[in-house]
Write a structure and sequence with these properties.
Elements: E1 2-7, H1 15-25, E2 32-37, H2 38-41, H3 54-65, E3 68-74, H4 82-91, H5 93-96, E4 100-107, H6 117-125, E5 130-131, E6 136-139, E7 143-144, E8 147-148, H7 151-172
Parallel strand pairs: 1-2, 1-3, 3-4, 4-5, 4-6
Antiparallel strand pairs: 7-8
The structure holds flavin mononucleotide.
The site of flavin mononucleotide has 17 residues, from helix 1 and strand 4.
């Protein structure tokens, strides 16, 4: 299995990046894994054209190679931020089709949890991805000094990564009851 963790926040003090990294570190050793951080990628904004850009090609290759993709993001105005949506626009629906896509998000408060649907809906209804039914949502209260310090979220991450990777394996194996 190939699992890609995409950290999409452009904030240098990103908390969702910490969450994404913690999920990445929980991936099984047996899997081949990819870590991609949009802070390092410098992706241009999608203009709808056929980009001949190394940065876009790298993103497309990463998504194409993955069986399972975790997208981590912070909540901006009750939606996924523009930088997060930009990866969907560049990579395109075909590269997500049939992949098991999972989400991990950080908001400023607990009330924005339903904002995760701003990505699950297009993934499910338009992109033809298999959306992992488990996701992680938390707030700044789970972090201190650039570290995740919330034992509840730590154990939620354990369960979440296990659900995501097991589902990826089953979907890849063609299990109709996955
Ligand atoms: C422009 C902007 C809009 C935001 N809108 C929301 C919001 O609608 N709901 C919420 O819970 N938090 C909101 N926040 C707080 C962020 O979700 C929070 O700071 C989170 O940690 C951002 O993710 P990051 O740290 O990975 O960049 C907003 C922050 C910014 C900068």
């Amino acid at each position: 299995m190939n699992h890609l963790v995409l950290s999409t926040s452009l904030s240098p003090t990103s908390r969702s990046r910490i969450l994404a990294r913690a999920a990445y570190e929980r991936l099984p050793d047996s899997d081949s894994t990819q870590w991609m951080d949009l802070q390092d990628e410098g992706l241009p904004l999608c203009d709808g054209g056929p980009s001949a850009d190394d940065r876009v090609d790298r993103l497309r290759r990463g998504v194409a190679q993955a069986d399972g993709i975790l997208i981590a993001f912070g909540i901006y105005n009750y939606l996924a931020p523009a930088a997060t949506k930009n990866i969907l626009e560049w990579a395109g629906r075909a590269s997500f089709e049939g992949k098991v896509v999972a989400f991990a998000a950080v908001g400023g408060g607990p009330g924005s949890l339903p904002s995760v649907a701003s990505l699950t809906t297009p993934m499910l209804l338009d992109f033809g991805a298999v959306v992992c039914p488990s996701f992680v949502y938390t707030t700044g209260a789970s972090f201190a000094d650039d570290a995740l310090v919330d034992p509840n979220i730590e154990s939620r991450l354990d369960e979440f990564v296990s659900t995501w990777t097991t589902l990826t394996q089953r979907v890849r194996a063609g299990d109709q009851h996955a």
